[in-house]
Task: structure prediction
Amino acid sequence: MSRRLLVGFFETESDILGVTRAARELDLNIVDVYSPYALHGLDRAMGLQPSRLPWVCFLLGLLGAGAKVWFEFWTTAIDWPINVGGKPWNSLPAFVPITFEVMVLFAGLSTVFAFFLVSRMRPGKEPERLLPGVTNDRFAILLEESDAAFDTAKVAALFRAFHAVHVEERVEEV
Amino acid sequence: MAELYTALRQPLIQGGKGFAQVTSDVCAPMERRPTGLWWTAFLISVAALLLGVVTVAYQIRTGIGTWGLNNTVGWAFDITNFVFWIGIGHAGTLISAILFLFRQKWRTSVNRSAEAMTLFAVMCAGIFPVIHMGRPWLAYWIFPYPNFRGPLWINFRSPLAWDAFAISTYFIISLTFWYVGLIPDLATIRDRAKPGLRRSLFAFFSLGWTGSARIWLRYETVYLLLAGLATPLVVSVHTIVSWDFATSVIPGWHTTILPPYFVAGAIFSGMAMVLTLMIIARKVMGLEDYITLRHVDVMSKLVILTSSMVGLAYMTEFFTALYSGNHYEEFTFLNRAFGPMGWAYWIMLSCNVAIPQLLWSRNIRSRVYLVFVISLLINVGMWFERFVIVVTSLHRDYLPSNWTSYSPTVIEVATLVGSFGLFFSCFLLFCRILPVIAIGEVKAVLSYGKPKEEVSA
Result:
């Protein structure tokens, strides 16, 4: 199955934010918006849910810290207890620094790997659906044409109102 | 209101640039042939690096008896260099993570190169303790792994083991943070490069980035999380470095003020190094519109702040020693200031506390060459701070018959020169092959095409 997409290109942040808000109000199906930098307020304009990556960060951080405390306790108190300056086998306060470092390491790396995974990013991947100029100086919005709410005249007026610099159609295999 | 505000404050990026202009300005130094100035600097750095490689090979082959250490002064030049380089790294994380959490928009022009500086400084720092182990081919023994000696585990109660974990984590997280920040810019370069090897490399590392809003949303979340993790991490790293000293029973080391004092000093020395590098980079690479006088001004103010914190720590430390009633502490501090190595103490005090106070004057802050000279002096002063802490605390210990002096050998000095060679070679290569300014982030702080109410902030 293929679907037809209408791509509108814009030149400024206020135009792309405005056109996205308006398209959402008209109940158009916004497939995606492309920009050369992170636009604040775009997630709200598109109605995107906040990312769940903080949970990955929290849980894996917790796992790293927990595993490390257990490992330090197991090595120093159970597997091969060593008497260091008469300190108790189980000297938990001395384990804090490394536990903290391992927590940061687990939380940080797992968040980044989870991000790559959910965004389907991997080394050597050629970009899917690369729109000209969106990594440089242009913003683009993709609307689905087969959508029931899609009305060519209305969308053309909308794009014109927000100073679209270029409009093109794309057909994509789904 | 917005007009009034912008009239008072210079815009962050000058020259009224559009987005495409920013891309081509930042990419220009990577796309033209290197200048004669770059080649000169690079060849000097590589020569210093080669000197370092030769001396490091020699001291590993011969042993660290090639250093000027003796029974009394068991830590000296090497550990001084280690703490110095780790400290340099801290400003990169301050700018990239802490100032990000504080929403300081000016950081966008300098964060990329400050983070690169962090990576290279941590690399330089890591070399020293590894050589100091004496048998660096066994350096991996510091990490716990199943082995045939029991298995015998490492001592998790030792600050030296904490240090190995702290510095490796710091390097890995800084590298990750830096790379994640680079991805959108790598894609920008991929899309403007001609087909060929260069484009393929950028395509490989940009991971198929398209600039989709859904991915940008996750990207921003990840960036915020990494900044939130890197902030306590950077504080922990120099805290743990200070514990290498503070958990011992040497007068002058065994104090509770050491962790905050080390962290403040690290950020101070790093800010000075950032200023040094940025002032050179903006001139050599023609980035005056991006790294403006306003950036130099803000960084100078941070230097005053951290210099004053360091000054306060020096005074507190001295006062505590004199007021403690502990003769060993009293003696150590009087010996630091007025003993045979007192000259190092006074270099430290004048470069770190007295001279930076000149930056209170707007006249001096606006003269870039003066700021440059001051930043160089701070680099020198902060190196001497570590020298004072390490050497003067050791050379007069509890037993007067042990008293001795210390002077570095040629090998030790050459190793320090070599580490500067490594640092500058890496930094110059970075300036050639990667965008020194975060293109995407700078575009986000331009006033071009923004709704009016957001421009002033």
